[in-house]
Amino acid sequence: MPVSDQERIATQMRNPRIVRLWQALAPLRSCVSFMNTGAHPDDETSEMLAALALRDGIALSYACANRGEGGQNAIGSEGTHDLGVVRTAEMERAADVLKLNLYWLSETPDDTIFDFGFSKSGTDTLEKWGRERALKRFVEIIRTERPDIICPTFLDIPGQHGHHRAMTGLAHEVMSAAADPTFPDVDLPVWQVKKLYLPAWSGAGDNYDDDLPPPNATLTVKASGEDPVTGWSWAQIGEQSRAFHLTQGMGRWVPYGEPNDWPLHLVRSEVDGPDNELTDGLPATLADLAEFAGAPEIADHLEMAQTACEAAFAAFPDMNRVALQAAMALKAVRAARDACPDRARGEVQHRLAAKEIQLSHVMRIASGVSVRATLERDVLRPGEEVTLSIETTGPVAEVTPVLPEGWRHSDGVVHVPAGAQSTDCYPAVYRPGVARLPAIRVVVTVGGVSSETLLPLERAPVVLPARSATLSPDRALINAAAETRQIDLRISDVFPHSGQAALALPSGWNAEPVAGGLRVEAPQDVASGLYSLPLQIDGAHAETENRIAYPHIDARARTFPAQLSVRVLDVALPDVRIGYIGGGNDRVGHWLRALGLDVTDLADNDLTADSLRSVDTVVVGIFAMRARPALKDAMPQVKAWVEAGGNLLTLYHRPWDDWDPETVPPRRLEIGKPSLRWRVTDENADVTHLVPGHPLLNTPNRITDEDWKAGTRSAGFILPRAGTRPMSRFSPWPIPMRRRMRARFFRPASARGGTHMWRSSCTIRWRSLCRARSA
């Protein structure tokens, strides 16, 4: 929907012109570029980067491996790919604060470079990501951005997350690979990174347990102090950036005066001389660039540009003088660009291109130019038309829309072509200074010098598919051991609205129209397996759209094929009554019911001795101890119920999820910290059944060594079949994760004292029954 007046006022209040101009001037101080590297959104060293960018003027970039699809979501229900969409948008907003060019190794939701969960080994991580694929993409990023310096956030040492270790290991390799003209399949000019630093601080904490000490510091980035215009410390600006990582609960208050220096260790350098400062041996300013590049032909132009940049700083906050000096600097930069000899272009041209963009923004802001461009609707379909309104203030020379290929603009109307692609929810690159299309080109002329900037629309439009529908459910389970073979499928949000929707059915399946959708029926003799039933609208492929909107990010949508995925199993079920206590982070109760079990969701007022006596087994959902305070209060009744013979299964919890080892579990059970040390993260780890004859492992379905073998890239329950046959596997959705949740359902214990099971991050730890160990 269009931006409201209240939203516009709030945006205006957050972005005073004088602060925008001061921050736009900052990158004129330097010609050096610094790339931070990490595995996930929020791995960036935001506080140090704030000082480097807004104090020192160093150009920043961040190379991030994946979209954080395997992380937690502190603000909503999105998970895996949809969570990746949210965290991508959060990372872009965080990058805006730091003026940070953002690159992803992962380019699509189905990319092999996926946040598959915890790993302890960088080598194992790269096996899953595809080592050649990851290094090739990293080389593309380095050759595109051309950083002088790269610096990972974490160390490649035991006890650290395997994803972090993989990116740090690749940073060593990519420095050589990006400069190697024989590196295959990357059609970009080679680039030699000049320096590689490692953090000289430990990455240990609640999650990670660095076994080795950090390397010695060879220099320290002083990040104490504050911005002279806003009065914010660099650490506070860094946290303003981190606060956009809301799904991870980021953003902390940093008091004034808290020391925030960052020690670094120089691993490799391709430049001569001492290394007392990051910029040593590099072209610190435009005036240094000619000598550094061996291009005396452009020295005078660059000296003039540097003098004008310094004069623009000195003129602040006199807007007219700042604009005039920026125009003079831009004229000199262009002259240097045109006169640059071929031998120096590799070191010079990308730096001057960046300066041209920076100076153009300074000229526009200092001139008082403001442009607000709005579409009447921000959700579009292929073939539609939408009105574009443009409001300008200040001495604008030219304002024109710049549209994606195939789009047209005439008489204030934007025409979206019939073949328009859906908006990319996993964009591979984001540059805060250059807007994505559709955008507005703004030309400003000062002192006879014209500059051009590309500004975003007030709200970026989201293009949805030409044919789409929502299926509910889009995943279903049929237990061949049960009677029912039917799935009631609701089909809603059909577009075009007059379209006829139908499923493409496997042989022997049937679908009858019912109110709001279809009743799908599998044949009585349906075989175990995974069945995909795609939806067609008017005989053509249809997609489903998951729209995502939060106040702190732009609206996004993930589109994917519209289909009903049905997993058929043959599972023996006990006659057991299950009470499920969910924490709002999973759908375990739903899938237990779908399997055919008798499941009751227990509300807070059901956590009483009387209610517990009505069930045989209680399953506590992920994080429920934190999300359900009443559960923690009710644990004395739960313990008494377990002592009387009830069975308790507790799913994934962390130490900080209100888990008191003395008072929460029926017997003392401490979740190890740092958590990575105590996690089994290798799906190939051996699992030993210490009591192989125990009923839990044999009835009503037998669990054998075969059941613990690593499966395909999927997620879900693994449930054994009855008797001694190997179990069937339930992995209803082919999503790139290697986590499997192994669940086991059983009759209540006949003897006094029930059973308690606690699920760690990737396996269930069955007290006294089995043990998993990393290979």
Q: Can you describe what's shown?
A:
- The structure is a single chain.
- Mean pLDDT is 90; it is low at 712-753 and 758-768.
- This protein has 775 residues and is α/β, with parallel strands linked by helices.
- α4 packs antiparallel against α8 (234-242) and α6 crosses α7 (162-177).
- The radius of gyration is 29 Å and the shape is globular.
- The chain contains 17 helices and 39 strands.
- β24 (529-537) and β25 form a beta hairpin.
- The protein has an 8-stranded mixed sheet, with helices on both faces. It has a 6-stranded mixed sheet with strand order 30-29-31-32-37-38, with helices on both faces.
- Helix content is 26%, strand content 24%.
- The protein folds into 5 domains: 17-30 and 283-364; 32-282, 3-Layer(aba) Sandwich (Rossmann fold), CATH 3.40.50; 369-458; 464-569, Immunoglobulin-like; 577-773.
Defining traits:
775 residues; alpha/beta; Rossmann fold; 5 domains; 8-stranded mixed sheet; 6-stranded mixed sheet; 17 helices; 39 strands; 24% strand; globular
Describe how the helices and strands are arranged.
Elements: H1 5-14, H2 17-25, E1 33-38, H3 46-54, E2 59-64, H4 80-98, E3 100-104, H5 122-129, H6 131-145, E4 149-152, H7 162-177, E5 195-199, E6 219-221, H8 234-242, E7 262-269, H9 286-293, H10 299-315, H11 319-339, H12 345-366, E8 370-375, E9 379-380, E10 385-393, E11 398-402, E12 408-410, E13 413-415, E14 429-430, E15 439-446, E16 449-456, E17 462-463, E18 468-472, E19 475-479, E20 486-495, E21 501-503, E22 510-514, E23 517-521, E24 529-537, E25 540-541, E26 543-548, E27 556-561, E28 563-569, E29 577-581, H13 588-595, E30 598-601, H14 609-612, E31 617-620, H15 624-627, H16 629-643, E32 647-650, H17 675-678, E33 686-689, E34 717-719, E35 728-729, E36 741-742, E37 756-759, E38 764-766, E39 770-773
Parallel strand pairs: 1-2, 1-4, 2-3, 4-5, 9-17, 19-28, 29-30, 29-31, 31-32, 32-37, 34-36
Antiparallel strand pairs: 3-14, 5-7, 6-7, 8-10, 10-13, 11-15, 12-13, 15-16, 18-20, 20-23, 21-24, 22-23, 24-25, 24-28, 26-27, 33-39, 34-35, 37-38
Helix pairs in contact: 2-12, 3-8, 4-8, 5-7, 6-7, 9-10, 10-11, 11-12
InterPro entries: Class_I_gatase-like (IPR029062), GlcNAc_PI_deacetylase-related (IPR003737), LmbE-like_dom_sf (IPR024078)
Pfam family, one: PIG-L
Protein name: LmbE family protein
